[in-house]
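Task 17 of the worksheet. Students: predict the tertiary structure of the chain below and write it out as structure tokens. Keep your answer in the requested format; marks are given for formatting as well as content.
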Amino acid sequence: MSEIFDETSMRRALGAYIPDGETLLAGIHAIAKETNVTGVFGKCVRTENGLFPDENGGVIALNKKKYAACDIYLGLTSSSLVLAECERNAYLYQFEEEPNVSRADIQEVTAPLFFADIGTCFPLTDIQRCEIKKGWMGSVKCLLTMKNGSYFRLLLPKPGGLGGGMPHHAEYRGAIIARLGGNQA
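Model answer:
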């Protein structure tokens, strides 16, 4: 568990999902209380592990859910919100083949897209709403809703863990809250 509260581990985990050309500006340990990621993908086929490009493939709507609390890393780049699991977790996956959606909502799959990688990086411009409230013992509760209907119920703890492995936690936490639209630190 102590390796979770390590800035080097956090940077490595978040780095896997940061878009090319961007750098991590702030990252913290947080707790995801509820996760609900949605997406509609086209020109693909579904396998046991993910979605793979196929010129003759169809359209697949995916809903990736988790209702139990889990440790995550939450990071910001200049234009992206990045989330990474601290430890491997299980999710509920629901699929709908050939959903009735507009073409504008469909993301074409051009490279293998593994289920574990879905819902890990969002453009900051895709954040539709961010509700920030004070929590217990200095924590901050955050409900992030994305334009596509995905949402995350997060808890941003005040301390960065024991042992001093995350020396920039308070600074980065403040930067993340400020960027997401809150004014609490």
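Marker's comment: Residues 169-180 form the longest helix (12 residues). The first strand starts at residue 26 and ends at 46.
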